Amino acid sequence: MRTAIFAGLLACALVTSAFAADTESASLKLKTPATSESFIHDGSAWRCTGDVCTTTKARSLPAARACRKLAAQVGELTAFTYRGAAIEGDALTDCNTAAKKG
To answer: So which residues are the signal peptide here (predicted)?
Structure first.
């Protein structure tokens, strides 16, 4: 009985940690290749390969604000996912436009 309870608790812990990782990570795709292999943004370490940059620990911000701040720092984005939320279409266009103005 104890083994079954322990196995159930372990399975819950693994599922919870996998879900947490998905809600803390972020990725972006740049219009042009990144100029550096890594950068720090709001305390998060980002790694870039070509035109794609990712982080495993993104700060808790509204996705639209994070998009604007990142686009202002690294350049125009063609795709953006932040803590499980994807910014697409008109919202991504608005993000890039606001970053250029800011």
So the answer is: 1-20
Report the DSSP beta bridge partners of residue 62. Answer: none
Exposure on the CB side of residue 33, measured as CA atoms within 13 A? 5
Q: Say what the pLDDT of residue 102 is.
A: 72
Please give the pLDDT value at position 23: 82
pLDDT digits (tens, 9 = 90+) for 29-49: 999 999 999 999 999 999 999
What is the Rg, in whole angstroms, of the alpha carbon atoms belonging to the chain?
17
Candidates 81, 71, 74, 73; CA nearest to 33 is 74
With b for 16 or more beta-carbon neighbours within 10 A and e for fewer, the 28-54 pattern comes to bebeeebeeeebebeebebebeebebe
Pairwise CA distance, residues 19 & 2, whole Å: 26
Cα separation of 8 and 101, whole Å? 52
Nearest to 53 by CA among 91, 81, 14: 81
Largest CA distance in the chain: 62
